[in-house]
Structures are given as C-alpha cells and as structure tokens.
Design goal:
Helices cover about 40% and strands about 20% of the residues.
C-alpha cells in the first residue's frame, strides 16, 4: 500500500477491473515489471462479484493501491475515480486483460520529462492480437495481428487533432496524460458506450502537443466474438461522439462526411437501416461528390423497396 505521506511519484497508473479474477494478475504484473519503477498503480475494482479484489489484495507490492466501487458504474467511471485518486502529475491507463511491455513507461516518460518538453500527453504503438480478417471468423477469416496506429499514419505527434478528426489513433492503454488536464476536460465521458478513448482525445488534443513513441509497447487481445457483440454499441458511440464534437469536426467537412459514412456503414451492418440512411444523408450534404457515399445510399434505397420474403 502506498504511503500517503511519501513524495508523489511522477506517474500514476490507473487500472479499472470488473470480474477479471482470472486475468487481473497478468495485467498488474505487466505494470509492475516496468523498467521505469517510480509509479503508483491504482486498481479500481468496479464492484466485481468474483475474486478480482482478492486477487489484487494478495499482490505484495507497496506501489499497488486497491479502490473498490460500492456499485458497478462502468470502466469510464472507474478510470475517473483513478484520476481523482492519482497522486502523480501524469496518469497512465492499463486494461485488465492487456499487457504492457517492460519499456513502455520508460520510453514514454523519457519523452514527457525531457528538458523543454511541453507535451500534454504521449501515446505508443499497440499490437492487437486476434482481429479477424475481412469476413470474420464465422466466414472463415483467420486471426491476424494488426498495429495501431496504422503504419501509413505513424508516427503522428504534435497537433494530432486533424488526424483524430478522421480516425482514432490513441487507445487508452497506450496513453499517458497530464492529470490536471484530464481533470480540466472532465475525464472520460461515462455515458459513452464505446470509443471512449477517441472521444476523450478529441477533447484533450486541442490543449497542446502530443508525443508518439512509435513502437508496439502494448499487447491487446481481441476476439471475433467481442467485435460482433459490440458492433451496435460502437455505431451508437461513434454517432454520439460525432454529434457531440460536430462543431470541431466541421472544420474539415470531408473528414466529418467520412465519419458520417462510417456511422452509416456501422448502422447498416447491425441492421439499423433507418439510422444508416440518416447518417448517409448528412454525409452527402457535406461531401456531395463522394461516390462511396452515394453507392451505399443507393444500396440502402434499393433494399428499402425490395419485396419482403413471404412468411407463408
């Protein structure tokens, strides 16, 4: 347990967890194995009903702090609790089923603490394990390894807002950010059902330059089932974020049109064709000459008027 009377460490690591008894030790140990050792690790147990808290309590390392929510409030609320409890001027985030490589904090903190550095945050690369190829596992797709941010985009640092207006490049597990600025922007949006990191960065990035350590220092494990299960939530979350930040995103009409096109495609894949048509109408208004937007719009118009199969 961290001694509250001791000097605060330069960085606080926040790890939210809910019913992760079988995986939490691996995530915690990947933090404790960091070559950069001057940190505190705040594990926020979001009212788990399994042995998650007990697993953390058994870890005999004075840098580990366990905080328990009295009720289940979601991962964003748990991260916000960690931000409020953090003692360090910088806050990093880990997830309960992912892994940091040993040099992750060292390389990021070297950029952030370098003489003359004025970064508001730093992120690094991440290997995503188990993302299926196009067609999905049920269609015979094979698991692959992908890299975030995409190789054609990286490295991106400094003013990353123009890139964020088109795509997400920062995942929560890769982020280290100034605690005071996270507090200023209100932390993570607890009403977002998904894409929480992207929405947060749309608020954080305008506050100053962001550093990028363009190396895969985080391993994320994903399954085809989780992608399928979360498709509707992702569509709703992206649309919510786009509407919330429409004024900012409208600085680049083609980028905003692309986001509405993506929202339309996600709604189409989940069968919500009415929402897809609404999103595509907004995309066409912003980028009326885009053939991809028109192609999907015409497809949805066509299937709307096709006869439904007989139920006899």
């Amino acid at each position: 347990m961290t001694d509250p009377s001791s000097d605060p460490p330069p960085v606080s690591v926040v790890l939210p967890a809910y019913n992760r008894a079988g995986a939490i030790r691996g995530a915690v140990e990947s933090v404790l194995r960091q070559s950069f050792t001057n940190f505190e690790l705040i594990v926020v147990d979001d009212c788990s009903t399994d042995a998650t808290a007990a697993e953390v309590a058994e870890i005999a390392d004075p840098r580990v702090r366990l905080i328990r929510h009295a009720e289940n409030r979601g991962a964003s609320a748990a991260r916000n609790t960690g931000i409020r409890e953090a003692r360090g001027p910088w806050v990093a985030f880990q997830d309960s089923d992912d892994e940091w490589l040993p040099l992750k904090l060292e390389k990021q903190m070297a950029r952030l603490m370098a003489p003359g550095a004025d970064y508001v945050a730093a992120y690094c690369g991440m290997l995503i394990l188990g993302v299926p190829e196009a067609g999905g596992a049920e269609a015979g797709g094979r698991p692959v390894i992908s890299y975030m941010p995409r190789p054609d985009l990286a490295p991106i640092e400094g003013d990353i807002l123009p890139t964020l207006m088109r795509t997400s490049i920062v995942s929560t597990q890769t982020l280290v950010a100034r605690r005071d600025l996270l507090t200023r922007i209100g932390g993570f949006d607890e009403a977002m059902p998904a894409l929480i990191d992207w929405e947060c960065m749309l608020r954080l990035a305008p506050l100053g330059p962001v550093a990028c350590v363009d190396e895969p220092l985080v391993l994320q494990r994903f399954s085809a089932n989780s992608i399928t299960r979360n498709a509707r939530r992702r569509a709703e979350a992206r649309e919510r974020a786009v509407e919330k930040h429409r004024t900012t995103l409208a600085r680049d009409p083609s980028a905003l049109a692309r986001l509405y096109y993506i929202v339309g495609g996600e709604h189409r894949l989940t069968g919500n064709h009415a929402a897809a048509r609404r999103a595509l109408a907004k995309a066409r208004a912003l980028d009326p000459g885009n053939p991809r937007i028109w192609a999907m719009s015409l497809y949805l118009a066509l299937i709307r008027h096709l006869p439904r199969p007989s139920t006899d």
